[in-house]
Amino acid sequence: MNLTLRILYTLVWHLALPLIGLRLLWRARRQPEYLQHVGERFGRYPDRVAGPVIWLHAVSVGETRAAAPLIHALLAAHPDCRLLLTHMTPTGRATGVELFGALSPRVRSVYLPYDLPWAMQRFLKHFRPRLGILMETELWPNLIEACHQRHIPLALVNGRLSERSARGYARIGTLARDAFAHLSAIGAQTEADAQRMTALGARYLSVTGNIKFDIAPPPAMDALGATFRNRIGPRQILLAASTREGEEEPLLEAFARLAGPEVLLLLVPRHPQRFGEVERLVQRCGLTLQLRSQAVPVMADTRVWLGDSMGEMHAYYGAAHVALIGGSWKELGGQNPIEACQMGCPVIVGPHTFNFKAVCEQAIEAGAALRAGAIEEGLKQALLLLDTPTRRASMGAAGREFAQSHRGATARTVTLLMPLYRGSHPQPGQ
Predict the structure, then answer these.
(1) How far apart are CA 4 and CA 384, in angstroms?
(2) Separation between Cα atoms, residue 364 and residue 351, nearest integer Å
(3) 100-132, pLDDT tens digit by residue?
(4) Which residues are bridge partners to 186 per DSSP?
(5) Which of 137, 244, 248 shows the shortest CA–CA distance to 183?
């Protein structure tokens, strides 16, 4: 890896250390958990993991949930190993404990250090992983170089790289190219992702598909979705899923003007630290509100039901008649529509879906989703679908078929990783 560029990159990290401490304090105002386990962010851990270790890095909630089928498959394929799961956010770590805590001590969740050479070396020396796996688009030059120096195979799986991200990596030139080139294997979601990565220097690359299609909706989520519908009653349910800052206010204003009392808005913000902020926003808009956490029947005059819970998105989709996908109405890249399709919920996405371009376009082509240019237009389309049950049912069925037809990425990814665990290296194109 280009030594001069990496030295400059590392120098920037060291100069930023005081700001990192301030950022942790700032974020702890909303999430006190940011001040827990701080030593781990610099490579200090209280104890080791016994036995052979497979290490998988999943930054936050989305990546952690996406990794679930792969984690279960790896544990089944390698019964002698332990799985170390690393994160960067408290919500990601909490999700890891929620999903895999019952598998302790075979699965353990910790923070990955910041990308400082000494912290990464300390991390790798402490846990001595036999194989490292990065989920989706996590490229840390010092981490990759440290694995290369220690001869630890490092793979990128479920890899996706938007056109925007590819342009960003291209701007840092050799540093990004060397990082891609030093990966032992890459499993890309689509051919387009693979082409963009190849242009940035990736060598050992295969198209394995999207592991998120292999996440089976838990049976308990079907039951919980039915509970939600019973709690709400006969009204039509419009879900605004994984909304981001700047999206809720125009949606609420349009909903107040355009939707009748027979429609309930089920509003689920993407980040739990914003639940209180969104609750206050609904109240300022003059709409009657109840919280999911209250666990009581939804009153007939309630206009907005705030989904202030984690890990229940499948149930929300199961309860809803139509869903607007958040993150796509501002230039934030959107969210994944796969869960909605699995649950047979028709989807409407906004204009900004660059983080999930392929899957959104495929869902639209399959007849499972629609695209709208602005959030008010999306709301109008949703209200029209609520009044058109035949079309709504057709879109829901198309979504289930679409989700089912794209399964299988987990098995292909395990096949890609098997030679690395055994100590052999894949050839380009395998």
Answers:
(1) 58
(2) 13
(3) 988 989 999 999 999 999 999 999 999 999 999
(4) 156, 205
(5) 137
Neighbouring C-beta atoms of residue 220, cutoff 10 Å: 11
Judged by phi (left if over 0) then psi (alpha if -120 to 50, else beta), residue 242 lies in: left
Q: What is the DSSP string of 315-378?
A: HHHHH-SEEEETTTTTTT-----HHHHHTT--EEE-S--GGGHHHHHHHHHTTSEEE-SSHHHH
Q: Strand 263-269 and strand 304-306: pairing? A: parallel
What are the residue numbers of the active site?
63
Tell me how far apart the alpha carbons of residues 14 and 266 are, in angstroms, rounded to a whole number. 44
- DSSP secondary structure of 125-154: HHH--SEEEEESS---HHHHHHHHHTT--E
pLDDT tens track for 82-107: 999 999 999 999 999 999 988 989 99
State the span(s) of the chain assigned CATH 3.40.50.2000: 219-405
Instruction: Give SS3 for 238.
Output: strand
User: For 172-200, how does the pLDDT look when each residue is reduced to its tens digit (9 = 90+)?
Assistant: 888 889 999 999 999 999 999 999 999 99
Residue 399 structure tokens: 């979504």
Confidence of residue 3 (pLDDT cuts 50, 70, 90): confident
156's enclosing H/E stretch is: strand 154-159
Q: Average pLDDT for residues 323-337, to the nearest whole number?
A: 96
What's the rounded Cα separation, in Å, for the pair 241 and 250? 15
Q: What is the DSSP letter of 65?
A: H
CA–CA separation, 185 and 133 (whole Å) = 9
- Tokens matching residue 39: 């030593």
> What angle in degrees, to the nearest 10, is found between the helix axes of 191-199 and 163-171?
10
The DSSP call for residue 314 is H
Parts of the chain belonging to CATH 3.40.50.11720: 3-209+408-422
CA atoms of 329 and 327, how far apart (whole Å): 6
State which CATH number among 3.40.50.300, 3.30.420.280, 3.10.580.10, 3.40.50.2000 fits the domain covering 219-405.
3.40.50.2000
Determine which helix (DSSP H) or strand (DSSP E) holds 103, and give its type and residue range: none
Tokens of 16: 């930023």
Peptide bond before residue 52 is cis, with ω within 30 degrees of 0: no
